[in-house]
Batch of 2 targets.
Target 1
Amino acid sequence: MTQQLSERIAVCTGTFDPVHLGHLDIIERGSRMFDQLVVGVGPNPDKAPFFSAAERVALLEQVVGHLPNVRVQAFEGLAVKFVRSVGARIMLRGLRTLSDMEYEFSMSLMNLTLDPELETIFLMAREEYSHVSSTLLRQVAQFGGDLSKFLPPTIRAALECRARERGLIGQSR
Ligand code: ADP
């Protein structure tokens, strides 16, 4: 492990299935704190994704174009290995609720054990997005609910389209 790591480069990993305004808020705030921010689009072994990794990257790229120091990249496997591979020392995470806290605390300790050179930094979610998760938004989309408060317009259109392709639940068609 001789690679030089920079604490001016941060990586925000997640599933982003799809990216929502809570994610975007953390990405925008992170982009102001670091010289470079890499958004790492990873697999989620617990969930079958709504969007493929390539689609999630493309959707993210549509909404971070105004942030010149942010780039989006898909990865496989351990997040700590990906963070090191881009030369970053910082893992940036958003914290929503107390229940997030428990999981994030365990994960950051695990990551510290796996790679003691990396640090996790948490930003508190903005109040208006602290209840927003991609899981919940996918459910709302599948029941045909209004997503306009939580998603940029292009992402909302993509999610509504994907929900229709999968068949809206509880709607007479
Ligand atoms: P994961 O599947 O790893 O939880 P997500 O795609 O849900 O990944 O989230 C990616 C990152 O964004 C994580 O750091 C997560 O804590 C953060 N995040 C998720 N939802 C919100 C939100 N509503 N507000 C702020 N940060 C969030």
Target 2
Amino acid sequence: MALKFNDSYANGFISEAEIASISSEVLAAQKTLLDGTGEGNAFLGWKTLPDDYDREEFARIKAAAKKIQKTCDVFIVIGIGGSYLGSRAVIEFLKSSSYNALKKDTPDIYFSGRDISAQSLSELLSICEGRDVCINVISKSGTTTEPAVAFRVFRALLEEKYGKEGARERIFVTTDKARGTLKKFADEEGYETFVVPDDVGGRFSVLTAVGLLPIAVSGVEIDELMRGASDAAKEYAVADVNANAALRYAAVRNLLYRKGYAIEVLVSYESYATMLNEWWKQLFGESEGKDGKGLFPASVIFSTELHSLGQFIQEGTRNLFETIVKVKTPDVSMKVPYDEANVDGLNFLAGTELSTINEKAMQGTILAHVDGGAPNLVIEIDEKNEYCLGKLLYFFEFACGVSGYTLGVNPFNQPGVEAYKKNMFALLGKPGYEDAKAALEARLK
Ligand code: PA5
């Protein structure tokens, strides 16, 4: 199985009868998703990607990753939202959240173009000083402001450092297959390009070149990631809410939402999952938050945030539930040292594995939070490896599609993201936005 879903800690909040009653809606949503008959069905390419991905491009991704590993010390991934969260999540989950600080034979990887901060850009420019640099600009539209600005900055750096010819060997572009402005520009400049498939939206693109090139540069085995996702695709096609973990998760979270639990908090007891949490937040937030509906996706790392948000989760407004992502088999062994002075009174734990203590912290927290009125769900993967993570990524993508249709929204669009862009362009005086500019400025205080 490699991935298990356990909703038994939600028993006091929802019943088997209620799960049975929502099952027909969830099965209908699954059928809509599998048949491609629902809203947003032009963006379902991610469903079959683990099996029908472009083998030629996959081989080019691996070759480009090797070239990048050989020729640079610093690899800069330029992209925002779905264009970077997936790769960063995988790299940090499988390698480390301190990946850049590790002793390794792969380049440091930095993520840029994900804000409009002069400080972030100038810091990264100084990090690049005296080091060999490659960049991968990732933008489906090619016109997103944040990555476009960063691309200007780092393209200029590379051209100054290596000349136009040298820079050409160090710039990799992941974008629309044929139509976009970035594709045209890349072809004119002679940069190697990779494809964001037309039928895959940004937040579902981690298993395309968008995610795979940066992931491969970090040394993660991308074949295994795809194998895990491929097995998941088969498992989650089964039309049985009780046997299919993705359907059961979609059913339970929709039921909880209908009972007023409008906030889902994704929980991990390991900081290497911080960016996985961020990826998940975009996946569910952008897919479900529309038409005045949706569960608000939040996240925490425990036990760290038990000392900051724990109070609220235990006793605050009772409108949240937690979904814990847990790895069954720990991959690092470390024991509590014996201390003669025993000032902290912890000698009863001397020699105990930290993973055992972490597990007990989790079990104690689940029971306390359930007692406090927060339902808990647990998703467990067997190991922290490529195969299991590939499965987990696909699990969330599939559950998200089913859950969104069950909720009654189109999970594959994001019309609301445009609102801030229009205002920002108008306020910046972009040609064509003159009327809006005056009206917006009049409202600013
Ligand atoms: O999920 C999405 O569609 C978004 O997060 C996009 O990935 C993000 O806005 C970046 O867009 P683009 O790839 O066009 O630069």
